[in-house]
Amino acid sequence: MGYGNYSHAAHAALVADRASAPHHEVFKQRGCHPLMDPRGVKMREARDNADHPHSLAIAFALDVTGSMGDIPRLLATRELPTFMKLIMGCGIPDPQLLFMAIGDATSDNAPLQIGQFESTAELMDQWLTWSYLEGGGGGSGSESYELAFYMLAQHTDIDCWVKRKKRGYLFMTGDELPYPAVSRHQIEALVGEKLDEDIPIEEVIAAAAETYHLFFLIPDLQRRRNCESRWRDLLGDNVICMEAPEDACAVAASIVALTEGAAPDLKTLVHTLTTNGIAEDRAAAVVRALKPYAALLDPNAVKSVSPIGSLTQPASSWWRKLFG
């Protein structure tokens, strides 16, 4: 997928037309859309083409449980054109976006939904608003985030990696803990695949990290105490504690700009944000959230040992045993 050209003007107009609409008029699904059902999915592809010769795969895995509906709604009614304006303004010409929706596989009807990689405003918006905001969650303190890592590792094929060994990006939003393993029973029920055994979350993260930069975005500082420690065990400084859900798009675009070298430092990043319509106070909040990650990228900074460093290594024998 990923054909067609992006128009920021068309995207901004589309979003503006429904900026004040009730969320049930924007997200009309009352169950998993058939085209977002993961059962039987072979591959979701982000391909180079004549329109986009340097495609960059970017996946958003959005927690759509009861406490996390703000971010999908903000994307659909205000912020997604901002993300595209920022990222393309930073010299990333060919982003291709995929949306996943994540719930709780122990209790929800649609705990895993997955769209396609797209390049046009209309198709990005289509998959985003086809997401079913179930608003569930089991009250266990965990959600099924590990299923998103599994789908990326096992069911996406991206030319930025295949052709150029450039990893794509995953931005996962959430405020709960992951489950400790990918359940073989849930994979059979949801995806239709049989596994011999459960896969520890450390293994599925390592597999996804071979082809994607992985980030977990916590929506605000109040909710960080619920989950930050465990996620830092898994992802190190790729866990980003935002100050408000409204910052998700600016944070994600800034991460791509910093990682790709389009913004060589935080001072440059602030200039990029403010000249592209981000208010100074929000730009300052984005920079505060990204300071630990930016330090990882600074060649002159003293590096601490971080779990994320190991995630660039090949997946272990556990994953190889299951998938070869």
List the helices and strands and how they pair.
Elements: H1 8-16, H2 23-26, E1 44-46, E2 56-63, H3 70-89, E3 95-102, E4 112-114, H4 121-130, E5 142-143, H5 146-155, E6 156-158, H6 159-164, E7 168-173, E8 177-178, E9 181-182, H7 184-190, E10 199-200, H8 201-209, E11 212-218, H9 224-235, E12 239-241, H10 248-259, H11 266-275, H12 280-297, H13 307-310, H14 317-323
Parallel strand pairs: 1-6, 2-3, 2-7, 5-8, 7-11, 11-12
Antiparallel strand pairs: 3-4, 9-10
Helix pairs in contact: 1-3, 3-4, 3-10, 5-8, 10-12, 11-12
What does this structure look like?
The strands form 4 sheets. This protein has a 6-stranded mixed β-sheet, with helices on both faces. By secondary structure, it is of the alpha/beta class. The longest helix has 20 residues, at about 70-90. About 45% of the residues lie in helices and about 15% in strands.
Could you give a short account of the major beta sheet?
A: 6 strands, mixed
Structural category: alpha/beta
Helix content: 40-55%
**Order of adjacent strands in the largest pleated sheet:** 4-3-2-7-11-12
Q: Flag low-confidence runs.
A: none
Write down how many β-strands occur, each being a DSSP E stretch of 2 or more residues.
Answer: 12
Average pLDDT number? 93
Oligomerization status of the protein chains: single chain
Distance between the termini: 26 Å
